[in-house]
Amino acid sequence: MSDQAEKKPETATGADPASGSDLAQDEKYVLDDQIGYLLRKAYQRNAVLFSEKVQDLTPTQFAVMARLTELSSVSQNQLGRTVGLDVATTKGVIDRLLARGLVQTAPSPSDRRRQLISLTEEGWQFFMQKAQLGLEVSEDTLAPLTQSEKRNLLRILRKLQ
Fold first, then answer.
1. 8 A C-beta contact, residue 52 and residue 42
2. pLDDT (tens digit per residue) in 9-19
3. pTM of this structure
4. Which of the pair, 16 or 122, is modelled with greater confidence?
5. Strand duo 103-107 + 73-75: pairing
6. CA 51 to CA 44: how far, in whole Å?
7. What one-character DSSP code corresponds to residue 7?
8. Overall CATH class of domain 30-137
9. Which has the closest alpha carbon to 69: 136, 111, 131, 114?
10. Measured at the alpha carbon of residue 69, what is the angle toward residues 68 and 73, in degrees to the nearest 5?
């Protein structure tokens, strides 16, 4: 028997499929085909475009301010949940926006222990000046796609949430 005939097939990771590896014998792990990798690369492109256009807000700060234009006044916890942030990140974002005078806190009328977050008048005006830039970032990010592809991508991404 030749060495060629005795050699076991391997996956791209070097794992022997017969050894209990999760990858099928003919299935190879190709990084460029992985959803997480592709989403991260697309996000990185979007983040670069964002930082070029909206130089004085991070994408996360922008998202928080955008949500506040929709919700008006909301608890920090609820605000964080609606933009997909953990508690610590939400607190840091709110603290930075408070320091810049873009948001304010007030006790909740129903539970005085809870603080409600809202945009200040300055924050509202500031965000309204930046909102068009946010739309341009989205358009620039999706520029390589046809209108149909843009609609399909957004529909699919919403489905994955």
1. no
2. 444 555 555 55
3. 0.77
4. 122
5. unpaired
6. 11
7. P
8. mainly alpha
9. 131
10. 45
